[in-house]
Amino acid sequence: MRCPHCGREIVRKITKASSTPQRRYWFGCVIATLAEQFGMTKDECHEAVMYHFTHYVDDHGLDRRKSYNDLTTAEAERLHEEVRAWAAVEHQCYIAMPNEIDVAEYELN
Fold first, then answer.
1. Which residues is 55 bridged to in the sheet?
2. Which run of H or E residues covers position 55?
C-alpha cells in the first residue's frame, strides 16, 4: 500500500482482534468471578478492571482506558494473565484458566 500524499510504501503489522472465545472467557469467567468477589455488577467490574490495567493519558491530558474489543489476541491473553495473577496475589481470588472450563457456555456481555 502506498501513501496517497508522498507515494512511499506503507508497511503495517497485521494483527488479529481478540477472539470470541477470549471475550466469552473474559466476561463469563474473569469478570463474573471478580464481580462476585467484589460485590459489583459485571459492567461495573469490567469498567474498573479495564481502567486499572489499561489506563493511559491521551494527547489532551485526559485519563482514558483501552476497549477490550480493540485488543489483539496477544494483548487479550496478556491482560488475562495479569488479571489472574493480580486477583490471586492481591485478593486471594482464584480465576479458572480457559482450559479448565467450557468457554462456549458463557455468553458475551
1. 65
2. strand 55-57
